[in-house]
Structure formats: C-alpha cells, structure tokens
Design goal:
With about 170 residues, the chain is α+β, with helices and mostly antiparallel strands. The chain is built from three helices and nine strands, in the order αββββββββαβα. Strands 8-7-6-5-9 form a five-stranded antiparallel sheet. A four-stranded antiparallel sheet has the order 1-2-3-4.
C-alpha cells in the first residue's frame, strides 16, 4: 500500500490541528475558576504552598500543623501547635487580580468560629497580610477585596494524627 504526499500533508495537518486543539483546551482549563479546595500542596503566583504535619511529644502528644509558603530561597512558615482541628487553603486572585494564598485554621467544636479564622499571604513577597483569629472574617474580605469562598475538603488534624500513629 502506498501513501501519497497529499495524504501525508493531511495527516500532518490533522496532527497540527489536534495539537492546536489540545493547547486551546489546556489554555481554557487554565483560565477556568479553580474550586476552593484544600490540598497538601499547591502553587500560587510562583510560590509553593505546603501543609505538613509533625508528631509532637513534648507534654501531651499532639500534631503540629505547618503552613509553608516558599519562593526561591525564602519562606514564610506558620506553625499551629494544638488548638486547631482543621486547616486548609487555596490560591485565588484577589480583587486587584493578584494571586493570593487564602487559608483557614480553626477548631471544630460547637463554640468554634469556623466562619472566621482566615489567613492571607502574598505569594509575591511572602508577607503575611492576616493571621487567623476568631473575629477576622470582615478584615479578610476587606483585604481580599471580594467575598470569601468556602474552602472544600479541609485537612483534618485528627486524620493526620492517625497517619502519624497518634491514637486520638
């Protein structure tokens, strides 16, 4: 079976068209809004964001949650030693269209303020703009310049404790 030069050009064109279509779909997906979902690690505005967990044995055994936002050789590290039951964050664009690390760290009891306890970090200069506390929802919205999203799938400190061999 022989294949003509025209058929080869058509195959090449089809391959180019397929590649162009794939690039277009990838571009559209990259511009689509990202679901607000906590993960163990993600990128934001050129910075790497990680949530890690350490077993602590000083006094009563517990888990230390560590949020690290790093860029080049610099890092901002926030440690939560006890006192929280959930932590998580997302990368989103703020009201000025700049990438922003938005996170929450809160306890899970009936007296806990899970609508508050927001933190904000600028991934460009690694500056902490807001630390979580029990009354900062309005401040977080003001800094972010838009309503706060719900962060789906927060990381459970209890689950992380079990992974580290702690029986809670």
């Amino acid at each position: 079976m022989s294949v003509s030069k025209d058929a080869c050009r058509n195959i090449q064109f089809s391959g180019d068209a397929l590649m162009l279509r794939s690039m277009l779909v990838a571009s559209m997906l990259a511009m689509a809004p990202v679901a607000a979902r906590a993960e163990g690690a993600f990128s934001c505005g050129g910075a790497d964001v990680t949530f890690s967990f350490n077993k602590r044995t000083e006094g009563e055994e517990h888990v230390e949650a560590v949020l690290t936002v790093s860029r080049d050789s610099r890092a901002t590290v926030l440690r939560y030693d006890g006192n929280i039951d959930f932590i998580g964050g997302v990368c989103l664009r703020n009201g000025r269209n700049r990438p922003t690390v938005l996170f929450q760290a809160y306890c899970g009891g009936s007296g806990c303020r899970d609508l508050d306890n927001w933190g904000i970090i600028d991934p460009g200069d690694l500056r902490v703009q807001l630390v979580p506390n029990d009354w900062n929802r309005m401040a977080a919205q003001k800094i972010l310049g838009q309503p706060l999203p719900a962060i789906d799938k927060m990381i459970s400190i209890r689950d992380e404790a079990r992974k580290l061999g702690l029986d809670w």
